[in-house]
Structures are given as structure tokens and as C-alpha cells.
Design goal:
Layout lengths: L1 E7 L8 E7 L7 H11 L3 E7 L8 E6 L4 E2 L4 H12 L6 E6 L2 E7 L5 E6 L4 E2 L6 H4 L5 E6 L6 E6 L2 H6 L4 H4 L6 E7 L9 E7 L4 E4 L6 H12 L3 E7 L3 E9 L2 E6 L1 E8 L5
Parallel strand pairs: 2-3, 4-6, 11-12, 13-15
Antiparallel strand pairs: 1-2, 1-18, 3-4, 4-5, 6-7, 7-8, 8-17, 9-10, 10-11, 12-13, 13-14, 15-16, 16-17
């Protein structure tokens, strides 16, 4: 069975966020097998897709698994899947995916960039949990927002870009929060470098201590920074050791997420469902 590993939200190998992608001819294999493959890949997400009959609301069924569990929404693995379909001649133009979170679309441009259409996440201001400061190593917190109604993250604004970059969180402590993950963010120190804000995402409860570039988190970061910066078109830089760029356009209840992808491995999975 053919398997690819694609670095998403980057145009350079070994940057951005890697995702494994497997395509099936028809229905998905058993969930147990899908989870075993994702655990074996040990990447933030492994994407599985198969074509749907023509005439429906979507063209492909799409699911995402971390090494530990299936997830409701994933941006970088959706981008990776669209890249595989477009580069392999299996789809062109707008691709509609049927996923657990609804129908998502992805469109590949002539330059290879992919633009995805995701639902915008709502942000509810909340008090910082008493233990969050400890979990973040004592970093100064400016604000905390909950996205429980959508992606289920805490979005935490820190003092500056340097604080985000140098953060060394306690992953075991973060695992105790009843959230999908914790996303920390700050305004860019120098927007002339090509990005408007920075972020990092931690998802230890889902088996991911740090996710290099989280597309779905930008459905909350887009409205967060659009309000503060007064613009609806922005670029975010996410990551610690690995980094990637996410272009965002806030369009009301929808957020457009854009980026490039590059295939770094194209091989054969020597097992069958």
C-alpha cells in the first residue's frame, strides 16, 4: 500500500509539519488498523482518504489520527492530502472533503499553494486557570481565551515573540487540562520578516507534546489577531524547532488557511488491513 509523508505549511523539506497520507480505493479499513498505522508513523497526524461517489456534497472522505486517537479537525494533514491528490493527478481544482467536522474544501493554485476553507472558531475570554502559569514555566500571561465550542483549545497570549520562542512548558502539567490543547501566541516582533504573529501548540493529551504547525488552531488565531491588528488577511509563523507559515483570511464564519507542501517520502507500507 502506497504511503507518502508530506511536510505541510512549507516549501522546503524537513520544515513545517509532517503528515502521512494513505489513499484507499473504497471504504476505510477497520479503525483499529488505522490507529495502528498512525501509531507506527508517530507523526502529529496520519490522514486516510478514499473517493466518494459522484454527485454528492463531497469528493473524498477524510479522517485523521494522531498516534493516540482520531481527531475531529486537522489542517496540516488536510493540506498534505490535497497536495498528494493534486500532484498525483487524482484531483484538480476545488476538492471537497467529508470529515467529522463537516465538509472542508481545498484548492491548489498554479504555484502549488493550497487554500483550505475551514469553520472559524469562536473565542470566549476566560480566567487563566491557576495552574496554567506553572505549566508554561512561569511565562507572563496577557489573556486567555477558550475555544471549547469548536476546536477545544485554550489560546493564551504571551508578552512577546521571544517569550513564545523560548517557552519550555511542562507537558505533564499541560496534559491535566481538559482541553484538546494549549496554543500560545504573541504579536510578531518585526512584521517585515513576513509574518504578523507567532504561535506554538501543545497537545499532550492527544499524544503530541508539541505540534509544529497546527492549521486548525489558526481558525482561532485568525479572529484573535484580526481584531487586534485591524486586518483580515494575516500570516502566522508557528513552531519551535520546526516552523511553518500559515496564511489566514478571516471571512466571517469561515477562515481560509493557505500554505505550501512538499513530499519527502513516497514508499510502500508492507502490511494490509
Amino acid at each position: 500500500m502506497r504511503i507518502r509523508i508530506v511536510d505541510a505549511f512549507t516549501d522546503r523539506p524537513f520544515h513545517g509539519n509532517p503528515a502521512a497520507v494513505l489513499l484507499f480505493d473504497a471504504a476505510f479499513p477497520p479503525d483499529t488498523w488505522l490507529q495502528q498505522v498512525a501509531a507506527e508513523m508517530n507523526l502529529s497526524e496520519t490522514a486516510f482518504a478514499h473517493p466518494l461517489p459522484p454527485g454528492g456534497d463531497a469528493d473524498w472522505a477524510l479522517r485523521w489520527f494522531t498516534p493516540a486517537t482520531e481527531v475531529d479537525m486537522c489542517g496540516h494533514a488536510t493540506l498534505a492530502t490535497a497536495h498528494v491528490l493534486a500532484s498525483g493527478g487524482l484531483a484538480e481544482g476545488l476538492i471537497r472533503f467529508a470529515a467529522r467536522c463537516g465538509v472542508l474544501t481545498a484548492e491548489t493554485a498554479a504555484d502549488g499553494s493550497v487554500t483550505m476553507d475551514f469553520p472559524t472558531s469562536s473565542l470566549t475570554p476566560v480566567e487563566a486557570p491557576a495552574s496554567v502559569g506553572h505549566a508554561l514555566g512561569g511565562a507572563p500571561i496577557l489573556s486567555v481565551h477558550d475555544t471549547a465550542a469548536h476546536i477545544g483549545d485554550l489560546v493564551i497570549e504571551l508578552a512577546d515573540e521571544r517569550t513564545v520562542r523560548e517557552l519550555e512548558p511542562d507537558h505533564a502539567a499541560l496534559r491535566a487540562f481538559a482541553r484538546r490543547g494549549v496554543v500560545v501566541t504573541a504579536a510578531a516582533e518585526d512584521p517585515s520578516r513576513g509574518y504578523d504573529f507567532v504561535s506554538r501548540g501543545f497537545f499532550p493529551a492527544f499524544g503530541i507534546d508539541e505540534d509544529p504547525v497546527t492549521g486548525s488552531a489558526h481558525t482561532a488565531l485568525a479572529p484573535f489577531w484580526a481584531e487586534r491588528l485591524g486586518r483580515t488577511e494575516l500570516t502566522g509563523l508557528q513552531g519551535g524547532a520546526r516552523q511553518g507559515l500559515v496564511r489566514v483570511t478571516l471571512a466571517g464564519e469561515r477562515t481560509l488557511l493557505g500554505g505550501h507542501a512538499v513530499t519527502v517520502l513516497d514508499g510502500e507500507l508492507l502490511t494490509a488491513p
